[in-house]
Amino acid sequence: xxxxxxxxxxxxxxxxxSRSPHLTKLxxxxxxxxxxxxxxTLASNCPSLQYLNLSYCYNVDLDGxxxxxxxxxxxxxxxPLKGLRLAGLRRTSERFMSLLGKYAxxxxxxxxxxxxxxxxxxxxxxxxCANDEFDCNFVTLTSREAGRDPGDPTxxxxxxxxxxxxxxxxxxxxxxxxCSNL
Length: 182
Hints:
By secondary structure, the protein is an alpha/beta fold. Helix content is 31%, strand content 13%. The protein has six helices and seven strands. The strands form two sheets. A five-stranded parallel sheet has the order 1-2-3-4-7, with no helix packed on it. Strands 5-6 form a two-stranded antiparallel ribbon.
């Protein structure tokens, strides 16, 4: 837990993380020294990371956070992440949420507080399960159950998540449709 250690430099944090392959928990909440490069260092050097708090790290943007899961996509492996706190992240994307759902299936805690651009479609992407994903634990929903037009005969596959704690507070673009998606 390094939150509040405001005099840590980016280079010393990078050196620490690059030499910590067995690191499982990291809290760097609010640190100015945390950057996108640090996220890439975590992705390549800390394969056992289970809990990560990047909340209010304003020098990290979507590109940095995306590197955490896109590495799993490249290596075709599942991330051991169980907790991810990203409160205050400036933006997110459907691609990031889709990759997070696919490559971090054991995620139990997801904090997206204050991501002002978070939309229903990003949460739909998080639980979407493609037909070619055979290892995906999913349910099949009718259009009505998926929050769509009840007269539509389309069936929707939704990933069954392990989420126990989800924070979407201060996300003004989230509507009832997000609840249907989840």
